[in-house]
Structure formats: structure tokens, C-alpha cells
Amino acid sequence: MERSRVAPDLREKITAPVYSVADRFASWERLVRRLEPGWSSDEFYPISAYDNDLDSRDALDEVMRVLTVEAFEGALGQLLARLDARFGGATLPDPEGSLRPWVRPTNERPEEELGEWRKRKPVRVPWAE
Fold this sequence. Notes:
The protein is mainly alpha-helical. The protein has five helices and two strands, in the order H-H-H-H-H-E-E.
């Protein structure tokens, strides 16, 4: 599907899905590491990248909803639960939605249907460093 959206000369260069489940997990893990204490980098990280990483977590939520119980409770479910717990430890509740002007979900959902990750804000703000 991703290949069908690009010019013919670029199609052959795409050898793996850009938005695979593995890539979504990698994106979520990178964000979690970025937010945790002790992480440092000179790499620029704009708030739009944070929004993209939250989109990856949204996609993982959709994937996990369609998995069998065995898969959900298996390695993928356990990995996601560990990453979510680490994210929770590196963020604070944001009931006032202070990031909402810059970080908006791509799916038009009512606020109450958003994942918990969309209702939290980083303790250490990576785009301000």
C-alpha cells in the first residue's frame, strides 16, 4: 500500500513497510527513552516529532485491539505494558490539556476516548532543550 502512493521510480526503493508494527514499537520505545532521566543528545527534537511519536502509540493501540487474547497477553502485550509504564514514569497527568494546541490526535476522537498517553505531559520537555 505504501509503495502505491509514491512515484514508480521510488517504489522499488521501498523494501519494507515504513509504518510496520515493529517500526511503531521502535518509535514508541525511542520516545520513552528520550523522556527518561539520563537521556541526552544534541539531536533536535521538535514538538511535532513528539506528536508523531504519540501517533505511533495510537497505531499500536489499534493493532492491539485486533490481536488474539494469546498475542495480546504474550510478548507484544508485555512489551507495550512495560513501555507504557516507563512512559507513565517520565510524564505527568495533564488534565488541562496544556499540549493540545501543538499535539493533536490525527484521528478525530472525543477527548474522553483518547489514550492515556495523550493526557500526559513530559516531566523533562525534550523540545525545549
